[in-house]
Structures are given as structure tokens and as C-alpha cells.
Fold this protein.
Amino acid sequence: NAGVTQTPKFRILKIGQSMTLQCTQDMNHNYMYWYRQDPGMGLKLIYYSVGAGITDKGEVPNGYNVSRSTTEDFPLRLELAAPSQTSVYFCASSRKTSGGTYSNEQYFGPGTRLTVT
Amino acid sequence: GQNIDQPTEMTATEGAIVQINCTYQTSGFNGLFWYQQHAGEAPTFLSYNVLDGLEEKGRFSSFLSRSKGYSYLLLKELQMKDSASYLCAVRDRGSQGNLIFGKGTKLSVKP
């Protein structure tokens, strides 16, 4: 199992450019997530998906879009990149989020380090 | 509102014991997680508590008191490789049970 994979690892964008961050998981997880992590700050949820065809906004969705056409893939689209989107982006997946004795912890990809100048 | 507090930085000595505290105020509670994150890497799962008490996993233990909105992560027999950030996260009962993360505690282990 490769787990959660993300591409690219690094990217530099000019202001106003667009790009797609790719995320794939091979654990057959229904739930997938996109976070951003800024220096000294916690992980902030951008978007999440509870299954193919279903997506919803997290805490900081502005400037981003997602789609979930398959269980495995959950790409994140940046339209009109802005310097405020300079961050490290993590994709994660989990079986489900219902609690109780099962942790159903999230598994994270290696991250994409994005700089917008 | 949703708030998770943990110390920004801590320093400890190799071989010692360190306790990292986390307090939370959230609208719902459905479990608390600790993740380890080495510099430049992804977070990795360490522990999960949903009931009050202590969960032990080798050198790492995690404690939860739901009535006090408090948890701690205890690291014993510290090793240099334990130098990392430790993230406390609460799973909300609503919003599909998404995780709310604290800002993390950067632990430096010195010889």
C-alpha cells in the first residue's frame, strides 16, 4: 500500500495562475480531506468529501475548489492564485469519522509546498 | 467557539519524561487525537482517547478528562528522534466529525 500520495511536492506559482494539486489514496477510504498548514498555525480544513460525488466546505474554502469523481482521487484546484495561498497543503483520508472506540484516524500524504509570488 | 490550546514550544533532555498538555473548548466532542509531525513531513497518528483515563502505547501515553476539557501526551525515555511537533486534535460531534487541530507543540530533545 502506498497510502496517500500527493503531487507535486513543490510548486511556485505566479499571482493569478491556476493549478491542481493531486491526491490519491489506495486504502479504499470513503473520507478524504484537504488541509493547509501555515507556519506556527494548526492544520486548517479546506474541503472534505465523505464519498465519491460528495464534497463540502471546511473552515477555509475561499479560493479553492474540489471534485471527487472516484473513491481514490480528490484533487484540489486553485483558481487565480494569491500570495495568501502560500502554504503547505496536506491531503488525508480515513475510513469514516464516527467515534466511539474506533479511532478511524486520518492518514496524511507527504504534502505539497506551494509558493505564490 | 472552537478553541484548542497547547504550549508553543518545550525543551527536554534525552532519557527524561515530558508531558505536553492540551485544553479544549469545542461545541461537541467525539474523541481526541495526538499526532506527531517531524519538520517537513506529514503528521502521523500517535494516540486516540474517547473515554476518560490513560491510554498507554509503549513509551507514549495519552490521558483524557472530558469534564475538564483536558488531555496530555506523556513521552518517556526521550530519544533524539522524538524532536518533533505534537498536534492535539478534537473530533467534533457535528460537521461529519471533522478534526479541529491545535497549533502544535514543538518539542526539542537535547543530549
